[in-house]
């Protein structure tokens, strides 16, 4: 039986399977009816991602949606029960598996959404998911069982568990640890002692990257009226360090710094409010795509209060890696 870890984030979809495959793509979909018929050589077509369902509707996904349709995304928590979430889920399945497969799935939600939506999402996941990719044969991926945990806790598990799903003996499994998971639309703060959540210091809110990314996008457009980037593009450009205008690379730093530095300060202030006794923590872990964008700026601002702060290795995939390790512990 296959094991699947899926993180359907507000900016990117990340997925891993125990068959060694992984994928990442923008969490964006668009209507295929808006796309022109175009010619491409076979090598170019391989990267396309169009997902069709039995109702006859085909959806473009990820970069394909951005390039070939009026692409859209969702920012509200209820999207986990929407058609858009299902499209992104099936697109991830199409990257990990061919034809038919049966799998167990572990995924996660932001802390502030978990109580209201986790049971509903689990019920939505269990069962068959039938689709075609790029006009190929029908695929049926059957989810035999699923678990929905909080995203921040999965990042802790990534540090506390081995690849085989066994609990390691380290500071993350035996001490009191604080985790700040900075996502596109949320800030998840978790404290756990010996892997048991401490409720008074665990909470989530909407202090994520999206507002800052929107502001960066507006500044870029003001300077270069010939492009009108979206937040999801800015997120990709931040990872690359540059963006292209008229075929030339432009450093994104001067556009990003005026908005990311204040966000880093806001995050530190929020941590200080919630985690007002920093001396209790054996380690403080920064994770999520936001920790990459804010990076060393945020870490430097935190070190005065939280001297044992670290940024998770491969922070963008940390949630997914924690999901997969938990799946191996449960069903492997």
List keywords for this structure.
332 residues, Nucleotidyltransferase, domain 5, 2 domains, 39% helix, 28% strand, globular
Molecular structure report:
- The chain is α+β, with helices and mostly antiparallel strands.
- It folds into two domains: 158 residues, ATPase, nucleotide binding domain (Nucleotidyltransferase, domain 5), CATH 3.30.420.40; 121 residues, Nucleotidyltransferase, domain 5, CATH 3.30.420.40.
- Helix content is 39%, strand content 28%.
- The strands form three sheets. It has a nine-stranded mixed β-sheet with strand order 3-2-1-7-9-8-5-6-4, sandwiched between helices.
- A hairpin with a 4-residue loop joins β2 and β3.
- α5 packs across α11 and α9 packs across α10.
- The longest helix has 22 residues.
- The protein is globular and about 55 Å long.
- The model has no long low-confidence stretch (mean pLDDT 90).
Write the layout of secondary structure elements.
Layout: E1 2-8, E2 12-17, E3 22-26, E4 29-31, H1 42-45, E5 50-52, E6 58-61, H2 63-68, H3 83-96, E7 101-109, H4 111-125, E8 127-133, E9 138-150, H5 151-160, H6 171-174, E10 176-182, E11 187-193, E12 196-197, E13 203-205, H7 210-223, H8 231-240, E14 242-245, E15 248-251, H9 253-274, E16 283-287, H10 289-303, E17 309-311, H11 318-331
Parallel strand pairs: 1-7, 7-9, 10-16, 16-17
Antiparallel strand pairs: 1-2, 2-3, 4-6, 5-6, 5-8, 8-9, 10-11, 11-12, 11-13, 14-15
Helix pairs in contact: 5-11, 7-8, 7-9, 9-10
């Amino acid at each position: 039986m296959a094991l699947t870890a899926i993180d359907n984030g507000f900016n990117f979809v990340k997925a891993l399977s125990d068959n060694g495959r992984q994928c990442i793509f923008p969490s964006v979909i668009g209507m295929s009816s808006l796309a022109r018929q175009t010619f491409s050589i076979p090598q170019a077509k391989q990267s396309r991602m169009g997902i069709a369902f039995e109702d006859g509707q085909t959806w473009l996904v990820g970069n394909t949606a951005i390039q070939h349709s009026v692409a859209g995304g969702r920012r509200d928590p209820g999207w986990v029960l929407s058609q858009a979430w299902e499209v992104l889920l099936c697109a991830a399945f199409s990257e990990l598996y061919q034809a038919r497969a049966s799998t167990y799935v572990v995924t996660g939600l932001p802390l502030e959404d978990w109580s209201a939506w986790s049971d509903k999402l689990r019920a939505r996941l269990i069962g068959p998911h039938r689709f075609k990719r790029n006009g190929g044969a029908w695929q049926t991926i059957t989810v035999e069982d699923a678990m929905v945990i909080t995203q921040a806790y999965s990042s802790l598990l990534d540090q506390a568990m081995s690849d085989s799903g066994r609990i390691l003996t380290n500071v993350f499994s035996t001490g009191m640890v604080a985790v700040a998971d900075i996502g596109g639309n949320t800030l998840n703060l978790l404290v756990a002692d010996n892997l048991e959540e401490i409720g008074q210091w665990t909470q989530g809110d909407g202090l994520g990257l999206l507002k800052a990314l929107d502001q960066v996008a507006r500044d870029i457009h003001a300077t270069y009226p010939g492009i009108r980037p979206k937040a999801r593009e800015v997120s990709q450009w931040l990872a690359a360090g540059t963006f292209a205008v008229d075929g030339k690379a432009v450093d994104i730093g001067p556009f990003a710094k005026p908005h990311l530095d204040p966000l880093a300060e806001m995050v530190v202030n929020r941590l200080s409010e919630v985690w007002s006794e920093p001396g209790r923590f054996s380690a403080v872990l920064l994770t999520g795509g936001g920790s990459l964008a804010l990076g060393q700026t945020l870490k430097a601002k935190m070190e005065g209060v939280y001297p044992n702060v670290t940024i998770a290795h491969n922070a963008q995939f940390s949630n997914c890696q924690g999901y997969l390790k938990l799946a191996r512990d449960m069903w492997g």
